[in-house]
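Note to self: keep these together.
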Amino acid sequence: MKIVVFGAGYVGCVTGACLAKLGHHVTVTDTVASKVETLRQGRSPVLESGLDELIAGETVQGRLSGDQDSKDALLQSDMALVCVGTPCLPNGLVETKALYRVLQSIAAQTADRAAPLPVVVRSTILAPMLRQTLAQIQSDLPTSTIEVVVNPEFLRETTAVFDFFHPPFIVVGGDNEKTLDTVLELYRGIEAPRFKMSLETASVLKYACNAFHALKIGFANEIDTLATLIGADGREVMNLLTKDRVLNISPAYLKPGFAFGGSCLTKDLRALEALAREHHEPLPLLSSVLLSNRRRVEQALDVILSRPERRLAFIGLSFKVGTDDLRESPFVELAERLLGKGFEIRIYDPDFEAARLVGSNLAQVMARLPHLARVLATSPEEACAGAEAVLLCKKLLGSAAVQELAARNVVIYDLDRMDAVHKLAHD
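Structure:
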């Protein structure tokens, strides 16, 4: 393909040179004359391992060039890639001036094209701001026919060339599936899983990845701080922690859902916080975990309170399927608070019987739900009889039963799918 890359910075230079290596004819354009001139000389304007040699080779081959004026290249191009900076403003929002300027220029210069031009945004930006920018351009240039695709990059400085050719996956997001397929053709020859999704989902993925990387670093540092307080070796702790590829370094616990419960996680987090307080050592990251968990309960409560239904059936009460452990169960807290707000509640959970609860398990639930026996049902049908809404706290109802409830126009809160619960607030 004939490609125009806008932005001769870090991402633009790496992307342009690597695409040329894949056999595409690439023109990298930038408003800074010195960057363009450096490219024309077969050198990289940015410091990155292996990039000078790659640019030199592709320039000699005639597949890579630099130009300060994009018009002629755009008229002959099959695709444009936008790799301009989206720096952070003092308030934390993204600066979109450069992105708007480039997208507007592309739209104006290609308005007469017979077919829409795929415009691939590699710049990091969330979908709402990108769509706002596109709407402004469409208002200014009603004849614009560009089709925008978000194609996040996962390049690390110092290993960017390697990362380009060995990505964890290739992701494209947009509104036109045919255009998404065209963009994926850019990467023919690279072995990696390919995913097509909405523009919104693709834009969040890059932020999620970077936030997770930052989270891991912060977590390791706070564990090291805690270890030092008691004379342990934080590096050895983290080294052993990463050896567990079943739960620790794995997809386990990384699926969005409702709040966690049970005795272990909450108890141990509180113990670590107490140790840190005893030594006057703040742990901002670990101390925020229980607050974040509690917020998940608040979110569900906010949605339920916003709706008119007041007769509720709880399907499940213990913190997960297969146990009668009610300690720290977020569903117990949710039931307690809804009862306090005057809701009528019936509860069905085959995993326990009130008469068999003992010890701290019994003490904790009695402190929060002293009349538990009166609201317990012996079957899901009994719990749901007369209910205006059903809370699926645990996956105890089959899809057929859920469909039957839906057919009765009963509101269903699937707490394992909080995105669906949030949407109910806007129905």
